[in-house]
Amino acid sequence: MPEYAKNQPAGFKNAVERVAIVGAGGTVGSHIVDALLKTGKHTLTALSRKDSSNKLPEGVLVAPIDYDNEATIIAALKGQQFLIITMAPNAPRDTHSKLVQAAAKAGVPYIMPNQYGADIENVKLGEEIMLGPVGKAQRDEIERLGMQWITVCCGFWYDYSLAGGEARFGFDFDKRSLTIYDEGNIKNSVSTLSQVGCAVAKVLSLKELPDDENDKSLTVSGWLNKALYITSFVVSQNEMFESVKRVMGTSDADWTVTHESTKKRYEDGLALVKSGNMAGFGKLLYARAFYPEDPGNCSDKAQNELLGLSEESLDEATQVGINMVKELQRRPERMAS
Ligand SMILES: NC(=O)c1ccc[n+]([C@@H]2O[C@H](COP(=O)([O-])OP(=O)(O)OC[C@H]3O[C@@H](n4cnc5c(N)ncnc54)[C@H](OP(=O)(O)O)[C@@H]3O)[C@@H](O)[C@H]2O)c1
């Protein structure tokens, strides 16, 4: 049965105002916080490990938590309407579940699970990059515990992936080298970190529920147990390279370009992962997304226009990515996988 604001108890306010976020100071979390704060419509509470040294953005309330003490997580989540989880990929596997279980006990109705990647409806790709079943299990757990989810399908983060070393989009800015997968013409749909933040803020700033059956406006409830699809650009490695050269004022002569087959990169990455070397993961993940017959392109589902998201410039995003290179190099755990 669809829910309407008109049927809610007296005092119901048709808005998502109290938002909790894990990873407020993180790669994507900081962009989500920034965009949410700009709306002026939300009170943000950052759940952060009690001994974390990560810097949290100004303007958020801080709730220190201890993953080994559920009561601290439940207390931090009491009264929250929406929990956004952005968590380091190397966090212990059960951390997501600890948050979800605590959210259920605290009465939080909605959760954005820690995904922010490929199209959840492309099951084959999800299985081959190994992340699909993990995300499905996270969403299933949310539903099983009586809550609802909204997950973000944004493809690769363009700026981050450009900056993040050879294993990602093939660029090594220190060596001025580029590995092109196959011929470099296969396109992926990708999103900038800031566009992910804007999209999340747009959805969470909608009315929570339609007023009544005649209300056809966009609402948060329209996305429940569904993906939020966004795309900044649909771009090939060759197009990225053209953009990089324009932005850096360089030419082909300044770059060493090699080609490698996506299939070989995928197999090599997989072999490394199977031997316990997570350096292979990025390699297999990005190589698989550029398979000619089934690339990571879900731009046909993009909801940018529906949400009124601004158009972006590829070259500006390329500049943002180049500016991120040193910052990512200071995160060795990130560069190693
Ligand atoms: N589409 C893409 O290209 C792409 C790329 C990378 C990642 N992703 C996805 O986005 C998600 C978020 O990535 P991110 O880079 O934003 O995360 P991140 O910045 O590395 O980490 C986010 C937060 O996780 C917490 N954290 C760190 N280590 C932890 C640990 N050992 N145990 C528990 N919490 C820990 C920290 O919060 P506190 O210190 O405040 O506790 C940190 O600020 C990833 O898990 C992945 O699913 C997508």
UniProtKB/TrEMBL annotation:
Residues 23-159 form the NAD(P)-binding domain. Belongs to the NmrA-type oxidoreductase family. Isoflavone reductase subfamily. GO terms for molecular function: oxidoreductase activity. Keywords: NADP, Oxidoreductase. This is NAD(P)-binding domain-containing protein. It comes from the Eukaryota.
